[in-house]
C-alpha cells in the first residue's frame, strides 16, 4: 500500500549530511566550505537545508538575493551569508540584516560605499568578485587600481574575500579554459593582496571545481548542486545522494480505445487500446510542458511510464498499459534511483532547472533519520 497520499517533495537530511561529508573529504582541513542555498535550497527548502548545514559545520552560506538572506536571518541562521547578486535598492536592508554583499562592478562598489558611509559603518565585510571568463558578473583585472582608490578613501568597508566563478569546470574538454581562469584569478588576487597588505579569503571552485581542480580550492569552496546530490558527471552519481524526492499518486485510471485522444489540443491519439493514469502534478508545480508527449517519464512500481499528451497546469497523464497498478498507488517523479538528472536529460534540460522549478504549493516533507 502506498504511503504517499498526495504530491510531496521529500527532503532527506541524511542524504544532505552524506553529500556534505563527501565534499568535505575532498578538501584539506584548512579549506572552508560555503554552502549555496539560493533558489529555496535548489528547490527544496532553504531554511531546513541551512539549519541542518549550520548544525553540521558549514562555514558560510550564499544566496542570490537579499530577500533570501533575510529569510535565513529571520529563521535564526547566524552563519555569515554572502549575497551573490545584490541590487543597490536593497543595500540598507542588507546591512540591517548583517548580510555580506558581492561587489561586482564599479557602480555597485560606489553605491555600496555610499550607503555604508551614510550608515556610519566601519570595515563592513564585502566580497569582491572578479570576472575571469564567465562574462556574467564581475570586475576586471584592470579595475584593481580603481578598487584600491575607492578603498583608500573610506573606512566603511573591508574586503572579506576575493572570488571568481568557473564557467566549465565539469567539462574535461574545456580544461585549458578552466586552467586559464584559475591562473587569471590567482594573478589578480595576488595583485590585490600586495596592495591591500593582507590576504582575504580566496574562492573560485563550484561543485565541479571541488571535484576536478583541487589546486584551485584556495581558502574556501562554494558547494551548490553537489550538496543536493548531483555532480554534473556520471562518475559522481554513485558518490552523491539526491536530497529531494518528488512523489505523487494515481488519481484516476482511464481506458482509451483506438483513435481516442487525450488532453489539451488532443495531442495524444491512441493507436490501440491504451490504459492511462492521471497524476496530480503539472506545470504549475514545476513539471514543464517540455516533459509531455513522451519526453518525460515517471516510475510506478519499478516501471517506467511515459508522460503522454500535453502537460496540464495541475495534472499529467501517463501510459500505464503494461504496468500493474491501481488508483492511489505511489508515483515517483524523481528520487534516489530515478534521479532528477535522468528525468531532465529526457527533456533536453538539466537537473538544476527541474529541481528549482518545484512550486511552493508542493508539500515539503522532511526526512530526518537523526
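^ Assign residues to that structure.
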Amino acid at each position: 500500500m502506498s504511503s504517499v497520499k498526495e504530491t510531496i517533495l521529500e527532503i532527506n537530511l541524511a542524504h544532505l549530511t552524506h553529500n556534505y561529508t563527501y565534499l568535505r573529504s575532498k578538501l584539506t582541513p584548512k579549506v572552508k566550505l560555503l554552502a549555496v542555498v539560493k533558489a529555496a535550497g535548489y528547490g527544496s527548502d532553504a531554511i531546513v537545508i541551512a539549519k541542518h548545514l549550520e548544525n553540521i559545520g558549514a562555514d558560510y552560506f550564499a544566496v542570490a538575493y537579499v530577500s533570501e538572506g533575510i529569510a535565513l536571518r529571520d529563521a535564526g541562521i547566524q552563519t555569515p551569508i554572502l549575497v551573490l547578486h545584490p541590487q543597490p535598492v536593497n543595500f540598507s536592508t542588507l546591512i540591517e540584516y548583517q548580510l555580506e554583499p558581492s561587489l561586482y562592478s564599479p557602480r555597485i562598489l560606489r553605491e555600496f560605499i555610499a550607503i555604508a558611509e551614510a550608515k556610519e559603518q566601519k570595515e563592513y565585510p564585502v566580497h569582491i568578485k572578479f570576472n575571469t571568463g564567465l562574462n556574467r558578473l564581475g570586475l576586471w583585472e584592470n579595475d584593481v587600481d580603481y578598487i584600491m582608490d575607492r578603498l583608500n578613501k573610506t573606512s566603511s568597508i573591508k574586503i572579506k574575500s576575493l572570488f571568481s566563478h568557473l564557467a566549465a569546470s565539469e567539462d574535461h574538454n574545456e580544461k585549458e579554459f578552466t586552467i586559464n581562469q584559475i591562473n587569471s584569478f590567482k594573478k589578480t588576487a595576488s595583485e590585490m593582496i600586495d596592495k591591500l597588505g593582507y590576504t582575504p579569503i580566496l574562492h573560485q571552485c563550484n561543485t565541479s571545481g571541488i571535484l576536478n581542480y583541487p589546486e584551485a580550492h584556495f581558502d574556501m569552496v562554494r558547494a551548490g548542486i553537489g550538496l543536493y546530490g548531483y555532480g554534473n558527471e556520471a562518475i559522481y552519481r554513485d558518490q552523491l545522494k539526491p536530497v529531494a524526492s518528488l512523489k505523487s499518486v494515481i488519481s484516476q485510471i482511464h481506458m482509451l480505445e483506438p483513435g481516442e485522444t487525450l488532453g489539451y489540443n488532443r495531442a495524444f491519439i491512441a493507436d490501440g487500446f491504451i490504459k492511462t493514469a492521471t497524476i496530480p502534478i503539472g506545470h504549475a508545480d514545476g513539471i514543464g510542458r517540455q516533459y509531455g508527449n513522451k519526453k518525460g517519464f515517471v516510475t510506478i512500481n519499478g516501471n517506467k511510464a511515459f508522460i503522454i499528451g500535453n502537460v496540464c497546469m495541475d495534472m499529467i497523464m501517463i501510459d500505464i498499459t503494461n504496468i500493474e497498478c491501481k488508483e492511489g498507488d505511489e508515483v515517483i517523479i524523481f528520487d534516489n534511483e530515478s534521479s532528477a538528472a535522468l528525468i531532465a536529460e529526457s527533456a533536453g534540460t538539466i537537473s538544476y532547472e527541474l529541481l528549482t522549478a518545484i512550486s511552493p504549493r508542493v508539500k515539503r516533507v522532511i526526512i530526518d533519520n537523526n
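Residues 244-367 form a domain with the Lyase, Ornithine Decarboxylase; Chain A, domain 1 fold (CATH 2.40.37.10).
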